[in-house]
């Protein structure tokens, strides 16, 4: 029997100590390696937890910690993206010489952001989960505004206000859930996911559904589901590239995990269809909005932000379909998206630094000036739109397959059409960046990218390709077990 | 459960305090002077602290006295102090570009209260709680929430947005005191500190906004679109 409490304690203490060291020593170079080392250890720990996670919900730490297969999976995605982003951050932040005196603050914030994300998925109390999510918002808002330009601060402000207002709705939902339980369990009982699920069948439908809709809208704001997505493109495009990758690849998954847990409460109450359909509708709407904005987008990172909106839509649809096949597809999609979106943001960050602009219309002939990095970025773009032979193709196809058998088969067709639209729009943008006209003589990029800039892109691309060619059978079994365990 | 066995005196006391909190939110809605907002918010927080204390007394929840004291201290004193300091630093006396006149905003606010009542009444019917204080608590909770959102929508100053958010939080706190007084105390404590952190974060960002973006009005924040 693995001692999970010790593993989890290490997972929280190590980044905590690293943050204190970084802030105390105030040495930029030391901070970047310290952060890298922390991320390697954290990745190892999340991997160890994932490998050892039992086939049941494990409650420990005086009832405050909950470890489930899905939770461990989300945690693993956090560890993975944190590692990739930490490698990339070294290369990227060195391209910003003016930030050098503040680098230790940047890395402390980045490790702090990772720490909040390592806490949230393990919370057994929905109220504390809510608080952990709130803290991820506060820390990441400062990362988004780190470069202190007008746009960055504007994005950070918008992010904090919109998400806090959204989360306030979720808190109201949690209180209504708890109130529903007091009719059964008496005025005072422990607020845990399991208790809420247990009382759900006896709570009146109106109250249960109102509470669920409030949490769906609240955490949906954090996931960035349309129409609550307005903060997402700003925050994702204005933060430093490694932060964008962590926001998109790790944070959104955690908020979605919250929604799925609340959905499981509605499921236990016997109103499965309504809850799943509500999530599905938001997912389809997100895909639709993302598609429209991707078509007419010019900012490289803004386009990727809308692509995050798209993939959160796909995940919401996957969880919304329900059933073991769509669920397995959604879980598989989570890790594929985390890897692939990190790759895309790293590539965008490199190109933005090289061409000195955020605008895709000014990034020209990328394959000529950056044959290797540009090619990896292009392959990533093919992968992120769900084309074979990459992992996202398999996972999206599995979600579609699961959807045909679900009570809402109409969404399969809408999703397929919108995915094709997004594929065309993405490829059109890349076509112009590759075969577009020559850049002006004074706009020819001269930047040489270091290994720190390109290595994490490879580290993300190779697994996405492998996962597309070979879906390990052990993983399929793990997803099936995760489906049977209450999240 | 508390809401089922309350004496008439306790019921009227809670109703009075809850309605008072609601009226104070209308004071905020009707004035464009930021200082008045902050004072009204402080008064509202003290009212909620009084609700906590009286629920602690009538419902025999001694831990609610601590919550009441902390509410008065943090929500009623420290947060208003922080926001007032921010108002002074930014040197913004009033909201200059409100979308609607005070009278129109108040009518909108009244419409929202009626809507909240209707939602709460429906919930009350579903839960067999008509004529219970729970309906009033729900009405106040939803109304404060919607009025907070209304304030955020109608006003463009960053400080007004913070205050709108605080009104929303107050609404939730008010409702939760009456509906679920037995909720784990730890959670309520953490939420109070969380609120404090977030207001400090807001304060820092507002000052960044002023120095780096040159404006604290959302009308001036128009760089990121599409």
Automatic annotation (TrEMBL), chain A:
Pfam families: Proton_antipo_M. It is found in: Cell membrane; Membrane. InterPro entries: ComplexI-like_HydComp (IPR052175), NADH_UbQ_OxRdtase (IPR003918), ND/Mrp_TM (IPR001750). Keywords: Cell membrane, Membrane, Oxidoreductase, Transmembrane, Transmembrane helix. Its main location: membrane. It comes from the Bacteria. Residues 129-416 form the NADH:quinone oxidoreductase/Mrp antiporter transmembrane domain. It is a multi-pass membrane protein. The chain crosses the membrane at residues 6-26, 33-53, 73-93, 105-122, 159-186, 206-225, 245-263, 275-294, 314-332, 367-390, 410-430, 451-471. This is NADH:quinone oxidoreductase/Mrp antiporter transmembrane domain-containing protein. It comes from Acidithiobacillus sulfurivorans.
TrEMBL record, chain B:
The keyword Cell inner membrane does not apply. Keywords: Cell membrane, Membrane, Transmembrane, Transmembrane helix. The lineage of its organism: Bacteria, Pseudomonadati, Pseudomonadota, Acidithiobacillia, Acidithiobacillales. It comes from Acidithiobacillus sulfurivorans. The keyword Cytoplasm does not apply. It is a multi-pass membrane protein. The chain crosses the membrane at residues 12-31, 38-58, 64-87, 99-117, 133-154, 161-180, 186-209. InterPro entries: HyfE-like. It is found in: Cell membrane. It comes from the Bacteria. This is Hydrogenase.
């Amino acid at each position: 029997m693995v001692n999970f409490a010790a593993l989890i304690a290490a997972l929280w203490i190590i980044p905590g100590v690293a943050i204190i060291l970084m802030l105390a020593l105030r040495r930029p170079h030391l901070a970047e390696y310290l952060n890298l080392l922390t991320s390697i250890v954290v990745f190892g720990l999340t991997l160890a937890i994932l490998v050892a996670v039992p086939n049941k919900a494990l409650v420990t730490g005086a009832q405050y910690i909950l470890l489930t297969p899905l939770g461990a999976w989300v945690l693993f995605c956090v560890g993975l993206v944190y590692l990739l982003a930490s490698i990339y951050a070294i290369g990227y932040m060195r391209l910003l010489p003016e930030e050098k005196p503040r680098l230790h603050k940047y890395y402390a914030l980045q490790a702090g952001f990772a720490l909040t994300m390592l806490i949230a998925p393990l919370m057994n109390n929905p109220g504390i989960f809510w608080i952990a999510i709130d803290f991820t918002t506060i820390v990441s808002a400062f990362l988004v505004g780190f470069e202190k330009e007008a746009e960055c601060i504007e994005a950070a402000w918008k992010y904090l206000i919109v998400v806090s207002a959204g989360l306030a709705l979720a808190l109201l939902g949690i209180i209504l859930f708890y109130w529903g339980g007091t009719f059964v369990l008496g005025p005072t009982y422990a607020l845990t996911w399991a208790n809420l699920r247990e009382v759900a069948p006896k709570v009146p439908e109106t109250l249960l559904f109102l509470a669920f809709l409030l949490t769906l809208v609240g955490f949906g704001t954090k996931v960035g589901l349309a129409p609550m997505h307005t903060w997402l493109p700003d925050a994702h495009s204005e933060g430093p590239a490694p932060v964008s990758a962590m926001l998109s690849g790790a944070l959104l998954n955690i908020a979605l995990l919250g929604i799925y847990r609340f959905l499981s409460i509605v499921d236990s109450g016997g109103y499965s269809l309504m809850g799943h359909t509500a999530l599905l509708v938001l997912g389809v709407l997100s895909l639709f909005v993302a598609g429209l904005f991707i078509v007419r987008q010019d900012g490289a990172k803004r386009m990727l932000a809308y692509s995050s909106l798209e993939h959160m839509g796909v995940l919401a649809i996957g969880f919304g379909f329900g059933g073991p096949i769509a669920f397995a597809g959604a879980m598989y999609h989570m890790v594929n998206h985390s890897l692939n979106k990190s790759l895309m943001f790293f590539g965008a960050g490199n190109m933005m630094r090289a061409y000195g602009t955020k605008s895709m219309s000014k990034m020209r002939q990328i394959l000529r000036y950056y044959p290797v990095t540009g090619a990896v970025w292009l392959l990533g773009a093919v992968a992120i739109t769900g084309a074979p032979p990459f992992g996202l193709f398999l996972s999206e196809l599995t979600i579609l397959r699961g959807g045909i058998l679900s009570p809402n088969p109409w969404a399969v067709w809408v999703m397929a059409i919108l995915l094709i639209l997004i594929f065309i729009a993405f490829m059109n943008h890349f076509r112009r960046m590759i075969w577009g006209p020559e850049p002006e003589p004074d706009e020819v990029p001269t930047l040489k990218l270091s290994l720190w800039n390109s290595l994490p892109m490879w580290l993300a691309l190779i697994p996405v390709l492998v996962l597309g060619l070979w879906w390990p059978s052990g993983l399929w079994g793990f997803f099936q077990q995760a489906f049977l365990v209450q999240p | 459960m508390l809401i089922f066995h309350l004496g008439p005196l306790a019921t009227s006391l809670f109703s009075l305090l809850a309605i008072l909190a609601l009226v104070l939110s209308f004071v905020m809605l009707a004035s464009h002077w930021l200082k008045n907002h902050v004072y009204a918010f402080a008064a509202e927080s003290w009212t909620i602290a009084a609700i906590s204390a009286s629920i602690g007394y009538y419902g025999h929840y001694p831990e609610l006295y601590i919550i009441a004291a902390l509410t008065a201290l943090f929500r009623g004193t420290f947060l208003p102090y922080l926001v007032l300091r921010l108002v002074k630093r930014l040197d913004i006396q009033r909201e200059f570009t409100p979308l609607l006149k005070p009278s129109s905003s108040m009518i909108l606010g009244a419409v929202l209260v009626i809507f909240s009542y209707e939602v709460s009444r429906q919930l009350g019917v579903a839960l067999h709680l008509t004529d219970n204080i729970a309906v009033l608590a729900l009405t106040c909770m939803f109304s404060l929430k919607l009025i907070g959102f209304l304030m955020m929508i109608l006003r463009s100053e960053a400080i007004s947005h913070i205050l709108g958010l605080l009104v929303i939080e107050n609404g939730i706190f008010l409702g939760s005191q009456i509906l679920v007084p037995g909720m784990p105390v730890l959670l309520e404590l953490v939420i109070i500190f969380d609120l404090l952190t977030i207001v400090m974060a807001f304060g820092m960002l507002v000052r960044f906004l002023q120095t780096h973006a040159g404006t604290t009005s959302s009308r001036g924040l128009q760089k990121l679109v599409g």
